[in-house]
Amino acid sequence: xxxxxxIIWQYLPKLLDGAWLTLELIFFSGLIGFLLAVPIALMRAxxxxxxxxxxxxxxxxxxxxxxxxxxxxxxxxxxxxxxxxESFLWPVLKQPYWCAIIAFSLNTAAYSAELFRGAIQAIPKxxxxxxxxxxxxxxxxxxxxxxPRAFGIALPAYGNELLLMLKSSALASxxxxxxxxxxxxxxxxxxxxxxxxxFAAGMVYLAIAALMIGAFRFLEYxxxxxxxxxxxxxxxNIDPQLRDEHLDT
Amino acid sequence: xxLQGFGHLLISGSWITVQLxxxxxxxGLIFGLLGAxxxxxxxxxxxxxxTGYTTIVRxxxxxxxxxxxxxxxxQLLMWAASxxxxxxxxxxxxxxxxxxxxxxxxxxxxxxxFRMALMEIPRGQWESAYAAGxxxxxxxxxxxxxxxxxxxxxxxxxxxxxxxKDTALVSVVGLNELMRQASVGAASTKEPFTFYMAAALLYxxxxxxxxxxxxxxxxxxxxxxxxxxxxx
Lengths: 249, 232
Known about the structure:
The structure holds two protein chains of two kinds.
Chain A: H1 5-44, H2 49-64, H3 67-75, H4 82-86, H5 90-93, H6 96-121, H7 125-133, H8 138-168, H9 180-191, H10 194-223, H11 225-228
Helix pairs in contact in A: 1-6, 1-8, 1-9, 1-10, 2-6, 3-6, 6-8, 7-8, 8-10, 9-10
Chain B: H1 7-39, H2 44-59, H3 62-71, H4 73-82, H5 94-120, H6 123-131, H7 136-166, H8 178-189, H9 192-220, H10 223-231
Helix pairs in contact in B: 1-2, 1-5, 1-8, 2-5, 3-4, 3-5, 5-7, 6-7, 7-9, 8-9
């Protein structure tokens, strides 16, 4: 087997171009998916059974079918209908870039909505009762108590979901997009060095994943600070005015 | 839904999808058990290898794995075979590459599931089996594995769902499974939405069946719920 490091270095800038598109895709679909997932999760956690049943079909479909099918349904499937081709949506739906973003957003929204629902239901009941007792209205409780608490609880699992989305973003290469995988495939078609190029692409994916894991660790440390808080006793000879009786025990 | 005579193609494609998923499941379970055994072993080398395996495989896309093993698999295999003095040409088909990629990916996640399950088993179980005169292997297969199975089932069920959906990726390298057959139908009839929707519904059916089987196995492997089922 021949292994050429030179070819990796030669095409590394191109691969990094592809990596940039991958990052763009996961950033936009992550953002849109998050904005979609929050109201869906609130509906899934509602008391009204009709409201709860509504997003069930959506979540069931998007979690039960492969992402590849969803991408093809949007990218190739939309062209089957004349009324879509004539509508204002067509300039968006004929571009693989937007189709990929739509498919990824809808897909990740379904998975994250289930995560957020679990987190909303895991909030201790007492906290909601306290908010009620203080006379907060329901929208205020959701904004001030439910969402921030649920986000803290869901954060580790949500970080995992975004990592899975990074990996599924490779599917964008199946609809002609030149993301990291697509770029590697194009280069291979020219140079025929599959092992070297896929190895290099894999390493770039690993690096992005490592950065994302680090970012989420940091975010979790900031947002769930109360779990990591360690009280350090003050020195004995400090000015008594500065002492905090509740903390120094 | 009018499939214009392409329905049988989708059915035969689904059958290949099922075969692909089940074959990958068998190899994936083996990889997972080996990985978990390596992660829990005393040997530093084995632990390091297993950690490298899970970190790398869980960080790169499954599609990239499929592509690497399909387009580079022959090269890799021939290189490995040349160590043993075998220099003939070796070909790697899409099914073999798909099984290899999917089972490697499944095994990396299953390693963690098995490791957690193995750690849940109290040490006393091993010790009492040794005291009863069983060897290491015998203890593992007769005492530990049946209990690990029960603890690992919910996690493995989830992983199998992921595996089932990942089989669609093998269509990219030309295996005639469900997704590929749907593309063939879509291209010949110019009705992509109909065919991809039909494929989506078939995948939904498969995942529902897989969920049902997992739930049945979970109930059957848990003595308390099992007895309730018999009474009912």
